[in-house]
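We give the chain.
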Amino acid sequence: MPGLVIVGAQWGDEGKGKVTDLLAERADAIVRFQGGNNAGHTIVRDGEEFKFHLIPSGILYPDKACVIGNGVVLDPRILLGEIDGLRRRGVDMSNLKISANAHLIMPYHVLLDTAGEVKLGKLSLGTTRRGIGPCYADKALRLGIRVQDLLDEKILRTKIRVALEPKQQALRELGVQRRKLRKEAGEGDREAAEQAIEDAPDPRLDLHTMTEEHVSFGHRLEPHIADTSRLCWDVLDAGRTVIFEGAQATLLDLDHGTYPFVTSSNPIAGAATIGAGIGPADIDEVWGVAKAYATRVGAGPFPTELSDDQGRHMLERGHEYGTTTGRERRCGWMDLVALRYAVRLNRMTSLAITKLDVLSGIGPLKVAVRYRSREGATLDTFPYHQSILHSAEPEYEELPGFDAEIEECRNADDLPNEARAYLDYIADFAGVPIRLVGVGPGREQVVWLD
């Protein structure tokens, strides 16, 4: 199985990093194919916690090639900070390779992201304000700056100049709108001082400063910049295994997720071909990762959300706080309608179910098996129309819970009968086998299933 894609099967934060780290032991290269530092993967190894945002999860193996593919957008300042932090902890970074074609998140992207969310107010999308969306927008507009541009100061300066002018105008207009809204809200007393601050030139948008800073970033990143597509081809053509690691998750996909409450890229398995520069025939297996319950960060529809003590219990016991933002995650029951949609959309061959231990002591367990629309219609498939999804009510099947603590379980026979029955129900409904079950945060706290 030379080509294996790992994707999130829910709304993100399913534990893809841990699954990637486990499977990376058997791989020769690990490739991150989309997203930016709005993602966060946490790995616990030998009691030590590692948090990754841009670096592929396989970096803890010094003999594996770890690749940031062309489909990723990266903030060089954030990336270098992550590299330096891992080096201080004794992690060998020489195997990190970065696609020369990956696009850069520039300071003006971050400013535009933040200003846009502020402007939307209560209608905000809940982005991480890391500049991801504006960077992908510039990529589509052909105003993007790529990693390879860091190695040519003349090209870099010209590209920044061309991209910067419309951004400065847009930021000025957003500033005027913010001041107008504040005045209407009765905050006029602070307006003069704030206007003086907002109208002052932002040092982050100075052409010369930005160019010099990014040239220095290029000097530091140059040893890692490579033709990463060819690297993947060489490994695959030799019959060795490459893992393609997605960020975010299926239901946050730009085309197939709960738009507009989605990420700015395509986290589904098909996007691995574009984001890594390989062919569709290079993908042999697709593993989907899902929690034993469901969570979501930020705004958007979430049919099985719990706003009671049960949901609070999941949040506290599962430590459901965003790796990147620290925000509390919304928690709810397992949504099998959405999971089956994700399985078909990605053509998943296997599932990994994480955080089963969080459900210990809860009973009965509920799983959503269909929705009911506002008009009373029964929906057995995931609705394509956003208005229907936003008002859909889940209908549940109840399954027996289990009280035993399962953190020490290491094979299927160790799990309580009720836990095995719960997993069997999920696999049967989704139509794909469960190969791996997480029973705790540690790397060793897993149960492999046949």
